[in-house]
Amino acid sequence: MRKPTVLVGVSGSKASEAALRWAAAESRRRGARLVAIRCWEPGRPAYYAINGPVTDAAHRHQAATWELATNLHTVFGGRLPASLYTEVIEGMPERALVDRSAGADLLVLGSTSSPCPPARSIGPVIRSCLSRAQCPVVVIGPEGSTATPASGYRASRSQARQSRSLAEPGALLTTAPDARG
């Protein structure tokens, strides 16, 4: 029998740290593996940019690895969860997270956008994951916001009740792609 997997995107923001904390608690509750994913993109300076230090792919990968380790230390201190795995992936975060969601039971992301007012825009990574992920997605919002279904996505009543019972204040909840109306 396959062990459940909870993925969490880690970008280094305060919102992704909150998502990492929430995902760790959820993975413990489910008895699941926790997979923290940090993506990096190869940089191509604009033709008009002033020449700065040039970094190759190996240095950018190393920097992303170091940033992920720093984020894990910030959130967990010296006590990393026993079920924690890490991945540092080259590529666009929205594509990498959607691709990895195929084998996951849950994808957790952090957002600095508040659910109120509902018209406020979310970023391209979250927007892409909400529309294309192959597992349920939970978006952890800023502290102090209330848990509400994400705008434009509908859960079945039982899924919404289950998701609300799992989330702490600040979570924007969504459902698996096949549950959207």
Explain what the structure shows.
This protein has about 180 residues and is α/β, with parallel strands linked by helices. It has a single domain (about 5-45, about 55-180), classed as Rossmann fold (3-Layer(aba) Sandwich), CATH 3.40.50.620. It is about 35% helix and about 20% strand. It is built from five helices and seven strands, in the order E-H-E-H-E-H-E-H-E-E-H-E. It has helices at about 15-30, 55-75, 95-100, 125-130, 155-165; strands at about 5-10, 35-40, 85-90, 105-110, 135-140, 150, 170-175. The protein has a seven-stranded mixed sheet, with helices on both faces. Strand 1 (about 5-10), helix 1 and strand 2 form a beta-alpha-beta unit. Helix 3 packs parallel to helix 4 (about 125-130). It is globular and about 50 Å long. The two termini are about 30 Å apart.
Please outline the helices and strands.
Elements: E1 5-9, H1 14-30, E2 33-40, H2 57-76, E3 84-90, H3 93-100, E4 106-110, H4 124-132, E5 137-140, E6 148-149, H5 157-166, E7 171-173
Parallel strand pairs: 1-2, 1-4, 2-3, 4-5, 6-7
Antiparallel strand pairs: 5-7
